[in-house]
Amino acid sequence: MMKTVFPQNFLWGGATAANQLEGAYLTDGKGLSVPDVLPEGKDRLDIVNAPDYDFSLDEDKYFYPNHVGIDHYHHFKEDIALFAEMGFKCYRFSIAWSRIFPQGDEDQPNEAGLKFYDQLIDECLKYQIEPVVTISHYELPLNLVKKYGGWKNKRLIDFYENFARVVLQRYYHKVKYWMTFNEINSAAHFPVMGQGLVKSNGADDPKNIFQAWHNQFVGSAKAVKIAHELDPKLQVGCMILYATTYSYDANPENQLAALQANQANNYFCADVQVRGHYPAYTKSLLAKHHVALSDLQYTDAELALLAQYTVDYIGFSYYMSSTVSVTQTDLPRVQGNLVGGVKNPFLKSSAWGWEVDPTGLRIALNELYDRYEKPLFVVENGLGAIDQIDEQHYVADDYRIDYLRDHIQAIAAALSDGVSVMGYTPWGCIDLVSASTGEMSKRYGFIYVDVDNHGQGTFKRYKKKSFAWYKQVIESNGQNL
Ligand code: BGP
User: Fold this and answer.
1) Does the residue 436 lie in any domain?
2) Cys bridge to 195: 151, 169, 315, 450, which one at CB 3.0-4.6 A?
């Protein structure tokens, strides 16, 4: 038998986010959060970019699937038991900020919200599942947007620091692995999720996006500081959306464009969070967006914080690659996970136009490790699909197994290349609401949940074919694929 390349302590598991599965959107004192008011539907991205979008609930016009999610809030014991049955070594989830600070700016946390995560974490530990916590995953208390204008306002740094302190102090003895912000770099394409910015409150002025990022970098550094002061052994990571970026051809103009797209889309945030300082290309990147350094508010003390409190590891999501051409404007384009590009003739796409590219994951791992020499954690990967459930309540999701197998092989190849990879947590290990469409019908899970786009269903859980497959992948430490 071939020796597995996966280290013995490799963190196999799965990943979710509070706002996409918990439901119970006003239960036990939870406040409204940004995703609670984002309309569902394929044109969600356009709606929030309408000039008059004002974060109001429009319940006559839209259903908001995340208001019920998969009702994980009331099913978490059953769900974690299923994760344990698959043999999860870890489980990545997020803490809903609006459960802990319903308005975001209170002095004292909401004890009922904390109680939920007390139970969730204890349930993981009961099965020796290592909790991996994203402090902020696309979920900002709505009041922080309405009253303060979202992350472009420096006051958010203090509110985030309070939130991070409360959860770190409460759980540091139970949770070793943390991430400060989910896909922090995604604001370049869709700032509403992470930064609370839409057109009507400043998303169309790039200065606001860069200011919001700076404020988040400072918040992230403060969280690292709090964590390391509580226990130097805590591991706090950044989390970036990584789309391996190719030039369409060997034309040097396109090669240069790909390099610059890499800097802007993949590296800018990680460079600051991992290396502790703004990269050399910052001024030229800002200039491209007609922003000057003097337009931004920052202090020497903040820059010192960034330098001192860098992250311990790099978490990233990888779904697809992106291809760039600036010389040919007539090439067909593809959608991608927020980062689009021109169609790559060597790749096939998912139904949502995300180009499936396992070799791109091996390249991503090598690029990130070459650049930073820090442990890497693949904290999201997977195939969104419309699953067909038969009368026996079975989903034969061979397409998902194929996708995951190819990507696990890519991780194994990268390990053989010498890259340090800590773990793998496929996205949406149990079906949940999609971030980009706000719908239930785009599913990623090993576990099917009977609920539709209108929140209707029995909420029963059913194991898909991929459930048994992933179980034996974990059991064999990545050998039986
Ligand atoms: C990432 C997000 C997740 C998740 C995933 C899949 O960008 O971190 O929250 O939803 O993508 O995307 P989608 O749900 O749009 O298919």
Assistant:
1) yes
2) 151
CATH number at residue 49: 3.20.20.80
Cα gap 206→213, rounded to integer Å: 11
CA 442 to ligand 1: nearest atom = 16
Dump the DSSP string for 92-121. EEE--HHHHSTTS--SS--HHHHHHHHHHH
Give ipTM to 2 decimals. Answer: 0.97
Domain housing 181 = 11-320+354-475
The whole-angstrom separation of Cα 346 and Cα 323 is: 11
Q: Tell me the per-residue pLDDT of 458-479, one tens digit each, with 9 for 90 and over.
A: 999 999 999 999 999 999 999 9
Which of 161, 380, 391, 475 is an active site residue? 380
Looking at residue 58, its amino acid is: D
What separation in angstroms does the CA of 193 have from each of 262, 313, 345, 455?
Answer: 21, 23, 31, 22
Counting the structural domains of the chain, the total is 1
Q: Is 421 a domain residue?
A: yes
- Residue 470 token pair: 């992933």
Classify residue 125: in a domain, yes or no.
Answer: yes
Q: Where are the beta strands (DSSP E) in 233-308?
A: 235-241, 245-247
